[in-house]
């Protein structure tokens, strides 16, 4: 797979987490709180500015879901290995309201996540 390009839909940012499967995987499914190996890219909904990408580092990332933002904890379980999913994450499920101390506080974020592997 290649690094995906994220196209931001027109209109205001959604207020709730939006989950869209771009490619349906056929491997093992992610369990809540499980370990995932992913490639991902993240952009700011409003500006389209990319703020993070495992693709640009040239290697996938492994995370326990419990350590990630709520949007990932809610949006990744059930995804299957080999799948590609887009998550649009409102501030409440990302880094909190504006002024929260994180550079992305108050921002709606869009991620495309490719699931490479799962662990427990």
UniProtKB/TrEMBL annotation:
InterPro entries: PPIase_dom_sf, PPIase_FKBP_dom. Residues 33-119 form the PPIase FKBP-type domain. The keyword Lipid metabolism does not apply. GO terms for molecular function: peptidyl-prolyl cis-trans isomerase activity. It catalyses: [protein]-peptidylproline (omega=180) = [protein]-peptidylproline (omega=0). The keyword Isomerase applies. Its EC number is 5.2.1.8. Keywords: Isomerase, Rotamase. SUPFAM superfamilies: FKBP-like (SSF54534). Signal peptide: none annotated. Belongs to the FKBP-type PPIase family. This is Peptidyl-prolyl cis-trans isomerase. It comes from Corynebacterium occultum. The lineage of its organism: Bacteria, Bacillati, Actinomycetota, Actinomycetes, Mycobacteriales.
């Amino acid at each position: 797979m290649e690094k995906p390009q994220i196209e931001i839909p027109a209109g205001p940012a959604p207020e709730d987490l939006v989950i869209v499967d771009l490619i349906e995987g056929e491997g093992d499914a992610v369990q809540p709180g499980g370990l995932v190996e992913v490639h991902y890219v993240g952009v700011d909904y409003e500006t389209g500015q990319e703020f993070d990408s495992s693709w640009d580092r040239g290697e996938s990332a492994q995370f326990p879901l419990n350590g990630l933002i709520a949007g990932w904890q809610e949006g990744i379980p059930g995804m299957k290995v080999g799948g590609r999913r887009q998550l649009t994450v409102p501030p409440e499920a990302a880094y909190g309201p504006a002024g929260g101390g994180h550079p992305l506080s108050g921002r709606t974020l869009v991620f495309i996540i490719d699931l490479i592997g799962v662990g427990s």
